[in-house]
Structures are given as C-alpha cells and as structure tokens.
Design goal:
single chain; alpha/beta; five-stranded mixed beta sheet; 333 residues; 26% strand; Nucleotidyltransferase, domain 5
Length: 333
C-alpha cells in the first residue's frame, strides 16, 4: 500500500497521520511534544514503523510552528502553513464549510472560507486564555482531569460572570466565585462562555461567522466550550471525527497533491531517522544588522540544515550530496 505522511508540529502536541491513495485515514498519532519536537517526531516514527510492514511512504507534508525544522529532518515534499493545511482538511471533509474555528494547546485560529477559498483568517498567539494549556491548568488547579472539567462545564445551568480577556484575571475571577459559594459547574460554564466571547470579540471582530462551522483542535473535545460556542453563535458546530489531527491530515492531502501533480518521487529520508542521533545548535550571526539567530540541525554528526537566516548565508552552506540523493551535508571547502 502506498501511503502519504502528514506531520503537524505544534507548541503542545506533535500529530502524525497516514493516508492511503484514496485519502482515507489509515493511522494517526497524537503525541505530547514536551518541548522537544524532534524527539516527539522520532517517537512517532518508531510507533508508525510497527504498522508499516509492506507499505511504502510516497509523499510527506509538514505543517505547524515546527514545520520548517521537521520538514528538513524528514525530507518533506511539501512544507505548508497551518492555515492552508487546516482549510484543506476541512474542505475535504465538508465542501460547504464557511467558518473554521481551531483552538489548540497555546494558540487559536479563525479561518473564513468563501466559495472554497480562504478569504480571511486571524490568529491569537499573544494570550493563552481559552487554549488547551489554560484549560488543563485550571482542571489541575481544581484537582480534576480535563474530561471531568468538560462534563461539569456542560452541566452548568446558571453560568457566572467571568472575565475571559486575560488568563490571570479569569483565574482570579474563578477563585473569587468559588469563595462566594457558586457551584463548580456554574463557574466552569461561566468560564467557557467568557472564553468563547473573548475568542469572538478578538479574532471574530468585524468578521461574519457563517455556517457551516467546523470546530477542531484539541479543545474541540471540551463539551463546555462546544456548548458555549453553539449558544453564542446560534448554530450547530461540526466536530470532525479526527478533530485533533486535522492539520496533519491537511498536510498529507497537500503532499499527495504535490507529488501526484508533479509526478515526483518522494524526498522522504526513511524511518531510520527514528534511530539516529538528531541534535540542534544555536548560532548568533553578527555579519550584519539583522543579527539572525541561526539554528543548525545535525544528523549523526552531519549538518543537514540551517534555519533562521534572513539572507541565506548559512542555509546556502547546505548542498545535496549528489544528484538523486536526498541527504545533505556541509559543502566541502
């Protein structure tokens, strides 16, 4: 079986999916990045390798905040921004989608689609209020798992008023309401409502939310946030079956389109990467006023990529070993 690999490297999780030639999901992995994107990808590759006997990877796409680093490591055929990847995955699922809400571990996105094309988008990377990491933190503070938080929030009948514009103020408000004696389910329902209103007033300001609306990302599993969105925007949300890995699915679809349309042989370096020593090193370039912070990517003692240089001075040091090979090294001399 010929398969296409999609990898979404985010701030909190690393997601890997395998699609077959018909675009059907064969395997998916949702892994905590734990501050080590390279290590989490290697771990994921080891897990996928167990299921891939007799199968062949014929296309690889990467997306997410770590897409460039991991794209260079894997030999990706396509490296794409997450807005495009999420939109492609949603359009593949629901061609009539007009609004995409994506809330992940540390950021959130609103993508507007009109006539099958992304017409506008907004991202919030400034404050963690409403993201998965903030909800996890509040669940831990209340000594409950996030699934219990989700169920209790959905049961709240009289949501209290919570300030949702700031994670610090939201937590302070929650503590105050607890001390006042409000039921915990009403406090959590109030928090969810405040976070949804903050999302809509921030990312949705001046933008029209039209159905069909797809809600994805790890927070889409939270029943309290789902309920608050549906009540405030006044329409039913579509929750994809694989809501947690939609970015990776989009990357795999785009990789399939890329290699098929151009009739390319994949540049994928193979699963041996999972067993190799991969390290990174930072360099401060002082050659000009840009003062770029350059990251070197090393594979088993060989420099395979340089990232972060604006002028290309460092990345140009990397050349192909020889025609037809995908590995790279420092240019001799």
């Amino acid at each position: 079986m010929k398969l296409y690999l999609g990898v979404d490297v985010g701030s909190v999780s690393t997601n890997l999916v395998l699609l077959d030639a018909q675009g059907k999901l064969v395997r998916k992995l949702y892994l905590r990045a734990q501050g080590n994107p390279v290590g989490s990808v290697q771990k994921g590759m080891l897990q996928l390798l167990k299921d891939l006997k007799g199968h062949e990877i014929v296309g690889v796409g990467t997306t997410g905040s770590g897409r460039q680093l991991i794209g260079k490591l894997l030999g990706a055929d396509l490296i794409k921004n997450e807005i495009t990847a999420h939109a492609v995955a949603c359009l593949n699922l629901e061609p009539e989608v007009q609004t995409i809400i994506e809330i992940g571990g540390q950021d959130s996105k609103l993508i507007l689609v009109r006539d099958g094309i992304v017409s506008d988008f907004a991202m919030n990377t400034v404050c963690a209020a409403g993201t998965g990491s903030f909800l996890d933190q509040q669940a831990a503070r209340l000594n409950m798992v996030i699934t219990e938080f989700s169920e209790l929030a959905a049961r709240g009948k009289h949501p209290v008023r919570i300030a949702g514009r700031c994670a610090v103020f939201a937590e302070s408000d929650m503590i105050h309401k607890q001390q006042m004696g409000h039921p915990i389910e009403d406090i959590l329902a109030g928090l969810c409502g405040a976070l949804v209103r903050n999302f809509l007033s921030n990312l949705g300001k001046g933008r029209e939310i039209k159905p069909a609306v797809i809600f994805q990302g790890g927070v889409a599993a939270n029943q309290g946030i789902r309920k608050a969105f549906e009540e405030i925007i006044g329409c039913k949300l579509i929750i994809p079956e694989h809501y947690d890995v939609m970015g990776a699915i989009g990357a795999a679809i785009l990789a399939k389109e890329e290699v098929t349309a151009k009739r390319l042989n994949t540049h994928f370096k193979g699963f041996q990467i999972a067993h190799e020593e991969i390290t990174t090193r930072s360099i401060d370039c002082e050659a000009c006023a840009n003062q770029c912070e350059v990251v070197e990517l090393w594979q088993d003692g060989r420099l395979i990529a340089c990232l972060g240089d604006k002028c290309g001075k460092w990345s140009q040091r990397i050349i192909s070993v020889s025609a037809g090979e995908t590995d790279t090294e420092v240019q001799a001399g």
